[in-house]
Amino acid sequence: MARSILTSRIHRYVWLDFALALLVGGCSAYDADLLRGRREDSLAADGGDDSATAAAGTAGAAGKAGQAASAAGRGTAGRSAGRGSDAADAAIGPDQPAAGSRAVEDAGPTEPSDAAVADAGSGCVVDSNSNYCSALPALPRPPVIDGELECGLRLIAIQPEGWKGSGPPNKRARYAAAWRSDGLYVYVEVQGDMTRPHASAQPIYCGDGVELFVDADADVEDGGGYDSSGTMQFVVAAPAMEGAPIDALRYFEGQSQGPWVSKTLKTKKLADGYSVEAFIGGADINLAQWMPNMRIGFSVGIDVSAPPGAATVSCPGRAGVYFLRVSTNSACNGEPWCDVGAFCRSMLTAPK
Question: Nearest-5° angle of CA 218, CA 183, CA 287?
Answer without folding.
Answer: 75
